[in-house]
Amino acid sequence: MPTVLICCDKFKGSASSHAVAAALGRGLESSGCRVVARPLADGGDGTLEVFDDLGYDRRAVVVHGADGERVSAEYALEGASVDGGRTVVIEIARACGLDMVSVDGEVPGRGSARQAGSGGVGDLITAALDEGVGRIILGLGGSATTDAGFGMAGALGVAFRDASGGTVTRVGDMASVAAVDLDGLDPRLAEVEVVIASDVRNPLCGPDGAAAVYGPQKGLAPEDVDEVDSAVRGFAAVVEEALGTSGTAELPGAGAAGGLGFMALGLLGAQMRSGVGLVLEETDFAGALGAADLVITGEGRLDAQTLSGKAPVGVAERARESDVPVVAVCGQNQLDADHASALFAAVYSLADYELDVEKCLRDPLPILQRIGSEIGAGLNR
Questions:
Q1: Residue from 376, 366, 330 nearest 8 by CA
Q2: Taking a C-beta distance cutoff of 8 angstroms, is the pair 8, 24 a contact?
Q3: 162-195: per-residue pLDDT in tens?
Q4: Which of 94, 215, 256, 295 could bridge to 261 as Cys pair (CB 3.0-4.6 Å)?
Q5: Are the C-beta atoms of 2 and 293 separated by less than 8 Å?
Q6: Looking at the DSSP assignment, which residues form a beta bridge with residue 161?
Q7: How far is CA 370 from the centre of its chain?
């Protein structure tokens, strides 16, 4: 009986990682396969669900949202730890996510883009510290912000001053920050390990930076991008001077989540990890891979962004290194044949089984079960 390891990301807006695996699994088992499933995410939305499956508990806390309004946000807390230093997992998008300020999926307005803050992430970190955790995993993805962690730092006790000594509290006034007061920084941060889970490799500033690359999808108008980039650059220089560091803004990943990567690296001393790599490690993907005859991975859409290090690529690379064949399942496949064949032995797209795209989005699970059955039948020929 062949063993199939399913490690698929969510089909965004259609089905969770768990639901995708369950549907594929039903089809595979009906065709005589043994199924092992591992949840998958890359540090963005869906990451908490991965840790749910690992026995973590959800906690809810009221935080400041991206627009400053109070909202409820969840994090995942390890149920128990041998050394007493439990791990907490925070998806920053639950506190300052783009979908929190977007109406019906539309790009937010310029005002939102220029004022959106990450204070809620600092609120979540404070709540985690109150739990007595030893490790914080920050999943960076899906933010509405381009504040270089200004809001997060403020919520953790950092004060920003202008040239006259006044306190700067608004993200839109970040360019006026002339000094940083670290005296109020929560001292408990020095006792915890902070890990960034992100596959974004952009620096903080410049043509590949947070404002230029991601700002427009958050609502920055073309004429705003250079101004915001300049404000972030100046702000980062003041922060680095206060911290006694240099070069943090240029590090790969500093531009993740609107520059939260920069502040986490500099202020929190965080370690940068590949989001998908960390998830695969936490879920013991390697152990399951050793017994697998085939791996199935995938996400809602395979396209050029997939190639930039998203979750299915991480799975495919590890499977191929172990000489285990890997196939992909997706809603739509927009990879060209060369890129697809370089990663996967085959690609199964829901759109090839159901021409009505809306039906694929609305009800993907029966089609996924059919695909699983087809894959299983092929293995058992």
A1: 330
A2: yes
A3: 999 999 999 999 999 999 999 999 999 999 999 9
A4: 256
A5: yes
A6: 167, 179
A7: 30
* Residues linked to residue 195 through DSSP beta bridges, in sequence order: 137, 271
User: Can you tell me the distance from the alpha carbon of 265 to that of 271, in angstroms, rounded to the nearest whole number?
Assistant: 7
Residue 313: domain span: 3-40+285-379
pTM of the model: 0.90
CB 237 within 8 A of CB 266: no
- What is the Cα–Cα distance from 209 to 215, expressed in whole angstroms? 9
98: which DSSP letter? G
Structural domain total, the chain = 2
User: What's the mean pLDDT in 203-221?
Assistant: 96
Domain closes at, from 276, 298, 333 = 276
We report the CATH number of the domain holding residue 357 as: 3.40.50.10350
Query: Do 186 and 156 contact (CB within 8 A), yes or no?
Result: yes
Q: What are the pLDDT digits (tens) for 10-55?
A: 998 899 999 999 999 999 999 999 999 999 998 888 899 999 989 9
Cα dihedral value 232, 277, 314, 371, nearest 10: -120
| CB neighbour burial string for 183-220, b if at least 16 within 10 angstroms, e if fewer | eebeeebeebebbbbbbbbbbbbbeebbbbbbbeebbb
Distance CA 346, CA 244 (A): 51
Q: Kindly compute the dihedral angle of the four CA atoms of residues 146, 150, 154, 156, in this order, to the nearest 10 degrees.
A: 80
237, 298: one domain:
no
CA–CA separation, 67 and 111 (whole Å)? 10
Reference 279, options 183, 378, 198; nearest CA is 198
Query: In the block, which residue shows the tokens 């206060």?
Result: 242
Same domain, 231 and 264: yes
- 355: its two tokens: 């021409």
